[in-house]
Write a structure and sequence with these properties.
This protein is an alpha+beta fold. It is built from five helices and nine strands; from the N terminus they run ββαβββββααααββ. It folds into two domains: 127 residues, no CATH class; 63 residues, Arc Repressor Mutant, subunit A, CATH 1.10.10. A hairpin with a 2-residue loop joins strand 6 and strand 7. Belongs to the TFIIF beta subunit family. This is General transcription factor IIF subunit 2.
Length: 261
């Protein structure tokens, strides 16, 4: 009698819409989290299976001197209190990897939704009375500024406390403990990755101190693993390829609090 092999389950793949062209719109984490909560509430309450309307995309005519039209995302759902209402959609299709989208339609069935042919990065819209709304000029959205402050404050709140013991007592110790000696940290010691939201808030505070950083400096300041830090950094910053700040990182234009170049 032979041992039973691994159990496999056949999955049905529907490819009827595999070549349909679709957009990939990448929104900030705080928008994605709010939308996810709205969809979960709708599913729990037995709402429309299509789901509620979360936002609308508008295409504006090219401004004077501009070559391309600008695109904006507006949050339309009622549960968006405390969030910016208007966002700029930046085209990010250049050098985009080939991607396809799939949806699970049943316990053992998956359907191809389409193939991504346009990618957009959504950033907070800027603007002020009499200023341009191109997403570069003007002041940052006040609701986003308040949201950033709240996130930075939450990230700075200490989750652990320390207490000084005047007369420590140790019992049932298998190995002797040497008190008063500090082990020097090994540079190769594994760093613990922070949650992306907390690390993003730390990076915003560092860029408020100075606009340009070398990656090694940011790693020393945040004490984060290289791959994790770079992945989070790429969400909000870019690395200069030339000029006086070559190889240094700076915030993307959509995240800067000033109009500095």
């Amino acid at each position: 009698m032979s041992a039973a092999g691994p159990v496999t389950t056949a999955i049905a793949l529907d490819t009827e819409f595999a070549n349909r062209k679709i957009w990939l719109v990448k929104v900030p984490n705080f928008v994605a989290e709010r939308w996810r909560a709205v969809c979960q509430t709708n599913a729990h309450d037995g709402g429309d299976p299509v789901g509620p309307e979360l936002g609308q995309i508008s295409v504006d005519k090219p401004a004077a001197g501009a070559k391309e039209a600008s695109m904006h995302l507006s949050l339309t759902h009622s549960d968006t209190e405390g969030l910016p209402k208007t966002f700029l959609m930046n085209v990010a299709t250049q050098n985009m990897a080939s991607m396809a989208a799939f949806a699970q339609t049943g316990p053992c069935s998956v359907s191809a939704v389409g193939r991504v042919f346009q990618k957009f990065d959504v950033v907070v819209e800027r603007g002020a009375a009499g200023a341009s709304t191109s997403g570069v000029d003007g002041v940052i959205d006040p609701e986003y500024r308040q949201l950033s402050r709240m996130r930075a404050k939450a990230a700075a709140t200490k989750s652990r406390t320390t207490q000084l013991i005047s007369q420590p007592q140790f019992t049932n110790l298998r190995h002797p403990m040497h008190i008063g000696t500090t082990k020097k940290r090994d540079p190769t010691e594994k760093r613990l990755a922070k949650p992306a939201e907390e690390l993003t808030a730390d990076l915003f505070r560092l860029f408020e101190r100075q606009p340009h950083w070398i990656f090694a400096q940011l790693q020393r300041q945040t004490e984060q693993p290289t791959q994790h830090l770079k992945a989070v950094l790429l969400e909000i910053a870019v690395q200069n390829k030339r000029g006086p700040y070559k190889d240094m990182w700076e915030l993307k234009k959509g995240y800067r609090l000033t109009g500095d170049a």
